[in-house]
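ok trying again, last paste got cut off:
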Amino acid sequence: MSSLYPRTKELTRTRKSLSDSPPSSPSPTAKSFRHDRASRLDSGSGSGDSATDRLLGRTSSYTRRENRLASLSKADDDASSKDFKKMYEDALAENEKLKSRLEDSRQELASIRTQLEKVTQQKQDRISERSSVLETEKREKRVLEKKVSEMEEELKVLTELKSDNQRLKDENGALIRVISKLSK
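nice, full thing came through this time. structure:
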């Protein structure tokens, strides 16, 4: 759209230069033509009328110049209105393209958001599964630790029983020797 503005500025500058510029200095041919016409006007009437006629002549040349400039600016206006119409149509086409791209981008964004939500949900599911697995593992670990501690206690008791059993065997052997010595 920025390419539209320099052209508009250029047209405005052209119109200003045509309508706002002071009259350009006439060529030598135009000067002599005016001089001839002014002298004809002077010779045809009295001196009071000639000043008025000269003023009217100048006014009519300015009027003709203004009319010429107006017709040029009309042509410029027609060309510029065609240009503006083309620029307007181009801008509309570009707007439609941009709207289409925007809609595509919105659809893509919605698709990406749904994908992100799915991935996030899957991640949360995995985390909850992990946490439940971790919780189960923690329970199993506690159970195993409890069993280990019970087995250690049993092992201590077993060791004590073995030592008691050995002591009793030793005492029993000593008593058997004593009894056998007494029976002889």
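cool. The helical segments are 4-20, 28-44, 47-183. The chain is about 95% helix and 0% strand.
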